[in-house]
Task: inverse folding
């Protein structure tokens, strides 16, 4: 899925919120901005766009 911001909320597939926790299954990885990350990731909306916190 791709997350994007629109009118003060985060859109992620069919979900809409001001933040998301993403946790891959089976020790998988998350791909963000050209890099792979392991573990949970918090996606928050800021003035300049989305921020991912590992």
Result:
């Amino acid at each position: 899925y791709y997350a994007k911001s629109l009118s003060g909320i985060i859109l992620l597939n069919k979900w809409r919120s001001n933040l998301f926790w993403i946790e891959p299954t089976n020790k998988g990885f998350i791909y963000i901005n050209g890099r792979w990350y392991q573990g949970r990731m918090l996606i928050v909306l800021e003035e300049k766009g989305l921020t991912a916190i590992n």
Observations:
- The first strand starts at residue 3 and ends at 6.
- The beta strands are 3-6, 9-12, 15-17, 19-22, 29-32, 35-38, 41-46, 49-53.
- DSSP finds no helices and eight strands in the chain.
- The mean pLDDT is 93.
